[in-house]
Structures
1.
Amino acid sequence: MFKKIVFIVVGFFIIDFALAQGGGFPVAPSAVGAPIDGGLSLLLAAGAAYGAKKVYDFRNKDNQDEENEMK
């Protein structure tokens, strides 16, 4: 009886390893990932321009407020 149980347990382990999924096909080196350089640099440039405009408007508003107080 013990030999049958050991045989069944070992058989399940062997079948488990035999039916395990193998590795897939190798990926071609040209298919690495999505190119984000063009869009990312455009987004950063637009953000910098928007930030510069906000700073310019804020400084311009302060100058106008000081001129209005002097009058």
2.
Amino acid sequence: MWLVIGLVATALVLIFTLGTTRPDAPAQSAPSPAPPVAPPPVVAAPRSAVAAPVDHPTRSDEAELDAWARSLAGPTKLPAALVSAYGRAEMRMRGEAPACHLSWATLAGLGQVQAVGSGPLPVPQAVWDRWAARATNDGKRPDQRNPADAAYAVARALCSTGADLSTGNGWWTTVLGYTQSQQDTQDTLTAADTFAAAKPG
């Protein structure tokens, strides 16, 4: 008798346990990766800067360029040698790639962000290997430590895209392709616009 009661009780416990056990919950899927951040809308390129002097391939324009650079060194708080280097690059590209509309202010903005305003504009080795050239017609080899040669190499790389840097989309796409950083590109835009606002002192 007690054996029967024990068997019945055991059966009831098993039935109750099996009947109330919930199936395993389905595994939750891993969260989807966040979509890439789109570049911020750019309504305009940096404002127009005071243009560098006209390039004179057949005669020296050093005195004119130096005077122009000195007049902007104070307002931009940049060494005159750097302003001259950026201006020289603008002058050269005006003849080599007139549709590029590269301004010295864009190069100064890149230098401000990537070199913290000091020294020649840093040039990635791959860019230097492809685009290095002597900024002045003195017959010497290009020097990566020379501010004018460094700025000229970067200018040639930027204008090789075929974009018009006087337009917002052309400027943003080109500079972003060079910096590979949206934050650096935005900082360059801000710095370039500030430099472009400078008036000769």
